[in-house]
Amino acid sequence: MPGGLLDLAGESGALNSKLFSLPRLLILSALDPVPKGDLTPFRDLSRGLGLNDGVLFANLKVLIKMGYAIEEPIKEENEKMTGYAITDVGRLELRRIVFWIGRWAGGMGYGKSGQSDSVLQGAGHQAKGR
């Protein structure tokens, strides 16, 4: 099946599997639209993403170690805190993963008119029935 899901699965090996984590993708997605040179305070990420502080902190540390995010001390409202930003490498990797996920979802038939809504509704019914 040339150009199909098997080919797409083979391409996944070029992606960083350590980034395939919902908290990490959420963090990078939140930092992505922030203008280059600006930093987002930890508390804003915590409030905006709805992640508890431990999950957010641990995943930020992994993203920093991978070179996808940076942290720097900032001062906001006369209070010292830590700010975070996505790096160029992080931005590129985020786009690669989003592109791959879009291709995968399209290959599975998701995203066709009305199908995604019914899939999500079905998942909700299954969860309630357990």
Q: Regions with pLDDT < 50 over 5+ consecutive residues?
A: 114-130
- Principal-axis shape equals elongated
Strand order of the largest sheet: 1-3-2
CATH class category: Mainly Alpha
Query: In percent, how much strand structure appears in the residues?
Result: 5-15%
Helix content: 55-70%
Distance between the termini: 37 Å
Mean pLDDT, rounded to whole units? 79
- CATH superfamily, please? Winged helix-like DNA-binding domain superfamily/Winged helix DNA-binding domain
Total E-strand runs? 3
Helix-strand category: alpha+beta
Fill in the CATH topology.
Answer: Arc Repressor Mutant, subunit A
Number of helices: 6
Protein described:
With 130 residues, this protein is of the alpha+beta class. It has a single domain (5-129), classed as Arc Repressor Mutant, subunit A (Orthogonal Bundle), CATH 1.10.10.10. The chain is built from 6 helices and 3 strands, in the order ααβααββαα. A 3-stranded antiparallel β-sheet has the order 1-3-2.
Break the fold down into its secondary structure elements and pairings.
Layout (H helix, E strand, L loop, with lengths): L4 H7 L10 H10 L8 E2 H8 L3 H14 L2 E8 L2 E8 L1 H20 L7 H15 L1
Antiparallel strand pairs: 1-3, 2-3
Helix pairs in contact: 1-5
